[in-house]
């Protein structure tokens, strides 16, 4: 006598649902495959976030090459000799006012390694520009660290001096005729060379290769104007800081960065695929910015810089921060009185 196996009703219902689910899945997959064959593949898009205050424009806002230092008198004031001892500033002088306040207020940037930056481990502010500020502080107070640092962008350097929010600016600030109309400068403490930073695979090797490319520079810097003259078909993105330029190059928003060699060396140290390319596009003399109406402070700073050239401090600082650029020496300078 044979036995017939009877499945419970629940099992029949489960099998029916499972078969239906498989059929639906196969149908969806077939429709998807047909859609892919007959149409464009599915894509996703996302807007790349850009740093704040970025401007894309074929023009530039920085000083044109005709405004550069070769077309005007960039000499500085002769220092009074000898320098007063620290803590004994001349009465009623700008230096005495700074001494009584207890702090030298310095406009700089804390994101421009190796010129001025904050060490992520110690929190100390350091760099070649910062050493210059330390020399001035030590000459006034006998203490290199009596400094109140104020962050200033490239755009804000002149305004920070003219409105009195800082005593001096030490921030890779080159001497130009346009700036000399608004502020005064010390003698140069560094002579920089402008070049280009690009990724190794881009084929950018000279300034002529920038035609048709997007180039990043900080707004109101002198770098963009010179590139525009040499590569008229280049387009520019201007930002508030060089760190923003690096972010944009990593995102592919720009093809290259142009600036002075110390700044480019600091940027390249953060990205092993970036390299400095091309010949020098011109020179820039960095000097300490001082508001007009304070010739005594200009003379005092010039005395400090002259002293630091002769006692070996300048060379020690260069060897520590800028030796990657090759051998260096203090730049030439002239006095106008």
Kindly describe this structure.
- Keywords: Signal, Transport.
- Residues 34-46, 67-76 have a biased composition (Polar residues).
- Pfam families: SBP_bac_3 (PF00497).
- Residues 34-91 are annotated as: Disordered.
- With 337 residues, the chain is an alpha/beta fold.
- The chain is 34% helix and 20% strand.
- Helix 3 crosses helix 9.
Overview in brief:
34% of the residues lie in helices and 20% in strands. The protein is an alpha/beta fold. The strands form two sheets. Strands 1, 2, 6, 7, 8, 9, 10, 11, 12 and 13 form a ten-stranded mixed β-sheet that branches.
Percent helix:
25-40%
The rounded Rg comes to 30 Å
**Helix/strand class:** alpha/beta
Number of helices: 10
Elements, N to C (H/E): HEHEEEEHEHEHEEHEHEHEEHH
The biggest sheet, with number of strands, parallel, antiparallel or mixed sense and barrel status, is:
10 strands, mixed
Cα end-to-end separation: 129 Å
Uncertain runs: 1-38, 41-46, 61-69
Q: Which shape, going by the Cα principal axes? A: elongated
Mean pLDDT: 85
Note the beta-strand portion.
Answer: 15-25%
By DSSP, the count of extended strands is 13
């Amino acid at each position: 006598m044979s036995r017939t196996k009877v499945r419970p009703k629940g099992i029949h219902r489960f099998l029916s649902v499972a078969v239906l689910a498989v059929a639906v899945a196969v149908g969806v997959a077939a429709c998807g495959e047909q859609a892919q064959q007959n149409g464009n593949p599915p894509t996703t898009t996302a807007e790349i976030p850009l740093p704040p205050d970025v401007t894309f424009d074929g023009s530039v806002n920085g000083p044109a090459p005709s405004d550069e230092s070769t077309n005007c008198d960039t000499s500085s004031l002769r220092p009074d000799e000898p320098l007063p001892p620290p803590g004994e500033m001349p009465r009623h002088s700008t230096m005495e006012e700074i001494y009584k306040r207890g702090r030298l207020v310095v406009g700089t940037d804390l994101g421009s390694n190796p010129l001025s930056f904050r060490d992520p481990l110690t929190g100390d502010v350091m760099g070649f520009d910062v050493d210059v500020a330390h020399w001035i502080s030590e000459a006034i107070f006998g203490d290199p660290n009596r400094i109140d640092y104020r962050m200033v962008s490239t755009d804000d350097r002149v305004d920070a001096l003219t409105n009195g929010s800082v005593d001096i600016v030490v921030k890779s600030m080159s001497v130009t005729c346009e700036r000399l109309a608004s502020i005064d400068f010390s003698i140069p403490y560094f002579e920089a060379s402008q070049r280009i930073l690009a990724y190794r695979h881009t084929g950018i090797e000279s300034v002529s290769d920038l035609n048709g490319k997007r180039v990043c520079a900080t707004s109101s810097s002198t770098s963009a104007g010179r590139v525009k003259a040499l590569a008229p078909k280049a387009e520019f993105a201007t930002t508030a800081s060089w760190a923003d330029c690096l972010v944009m190059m990593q995102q592919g928003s720009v093809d290259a960065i142009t600036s002075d060699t110390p700044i480019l060396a600091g940027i390249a140290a953060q990205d092993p695929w970036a390299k400095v390319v091309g010949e020098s596009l011109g020179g820039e003399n960095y000097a300490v910015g001082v508001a007009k109406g304070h010739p005594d402070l200009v003379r005092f700073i010039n005395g400090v810089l002259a002293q630091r050239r002769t006692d070996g401090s300048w060379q020690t600082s260069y060897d520590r921060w800028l030796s990657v650029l090759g051998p260096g020496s203090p730049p030439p300078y002239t006095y106008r009185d």
